[in-house]
Amino acid sequence: MVHLSGEGTVITTALITALIETPLFWLAGYRNITDCLYFAGINIVSNIMLNRRLLSMRFPSSQILFWAVIILAELCVVVLEFVMCCCIMKSVYKFRLRRLLFTMLFTNASSFLLGILWILL
Predict the structure, then answer these.
(1) Model pLDDT for residues 14-72, shown as the tens digit of each residue
(2) Which SS3 state, helix, strand or coil, does residue 30 take?
(3) In principle, which of 19, 21, 59, 107 could form an S-S bond with 2, CB 3.0–4.6 Å?
């Protein structure tokens, strides 16, 4: 079985993820500081939820199944963050919702790939 370790790093990981994704959100054109703060908060909450869930799971030894579960979980986070942003951010309606969804995919994929690079280095 493959186990994810580091319950103590859940908060740190969430903060690092927010530090990566929030500037990307801002660069994508979402310049309202309140929305950026909401995005950071949403990001931290969703990241903590994801990592706590992953830490509680037992993964099969198959690397393919392991990565399939991780990618599926990341896609669930994108949907969760998208819905939370739509519900909380008032200025999000100035932008098309499709653009917001692509922004969520971009920010999450960027931090995901940076995380993999960090692990590999």
Answers:
(1) 999 999 999 999 999 999 999 999 999 999 999 999 999 888 888 778 889 888 999 99
(2) coil
(3) 59
